[in-house]
Amino acid sequence: MHQHLHREIQKLKKSIMIIGTLVEESLRDSIKAIVERDKKRAQTIIKEGSVVDEMEVELEEECLKILALHQPVAIDLRYIISVLKINNDLERIGDLAENIAERAEFLSSQLPIKIPDTIPLMASIVQNMLKNSLNALVNMDTLLATKVCESDDQVDDLHSGMYPLIQSMIEKEPKKIDALLQLLSISRYLERAADHCTNIAEDVEYLVEGHIKRHH
């Protein structure tokens, strides 16, 4: 019985990392599509979003099946609960990558605008947060998870700074207001993605230490 549960948990680990990798790629490619005005890349991300959605549902069903059949306790129970929550956060990040890709598709049809350095900088931090949160899960590394949580403040600060920046850009080029406002949306999506990465890191801390740190 215990061996069978162990095998099922190993399958969960593999599945969550596959979803994580797909979401990482979507997020990276969505920003590339913005910077490079790549309509085709943006459309591919939007089209492939359903793959992550389907995998998320399958993994959730697997977790619920294991809970019902094996009634795990202690660390095994915490692991399955953590995977359920992380699975949901990864799916949300995937949705946000799609939202960014939709903005990229729109921008590719508009007059070119200068992409502020803040956008790729935010994206780089969020991508690192996502990568580190998944590595923290694999290695049960609470120090790395804490590092992810600390990066969230940096993303929040950069997002706040986007408002006056976009305002000044609109004043200089009022005809491009529709395109420039998309940059605020992209910034907001990245800020939300950072929040989901933080959730994943906090779930790793819960998994390892057994108590919930969220909202502290």
Low-pLDDT runs of 5+ residues are none
Give the N-to-C terminal Cα separation.
Answer: 38 Å
Structural category is: mainly alpha
Q: Approximately how much helix is present in the residues?
A: over 70%
Helices, by number, come to: 6
CATH class: Mainly Alpha
Number of domains: 1
Write the layout of secondary structure elements.
Blueprint lengths: L1 H34 L3 H32 L3 H34 L10 H22 L2 H31 L4 H33 L7
Helix pairs in contact: 1-2, 1-3, 1-4, 2-3, 3-6, 4-5, 4-6, 5-6
Describe the protein in words.
Helix content is 86%, strand content 0%. It starts with a helix and ends in a 7-residue tail after the last helix. The model has no long low-confidence stretch (mean pLDDT 94). It is built from six helices and no strands. With 216 residues, the chain is mainly α. The chain has helices at residues 2-35, 39-70, 74-107, 118-139, 142-172, 177-209. The chain has a single domain (2-209), classed as Up-down Bundle (Methane Monooxygenase Hydroxylase, Chain G, domain 1), CATH 1.20.58.
Characterize this entry briefly.
With 216 residues, the protein is mainly alpha-helical. It has helices at 2-35, 39-70, 74-107, 118-139, 142-172, 177-209.
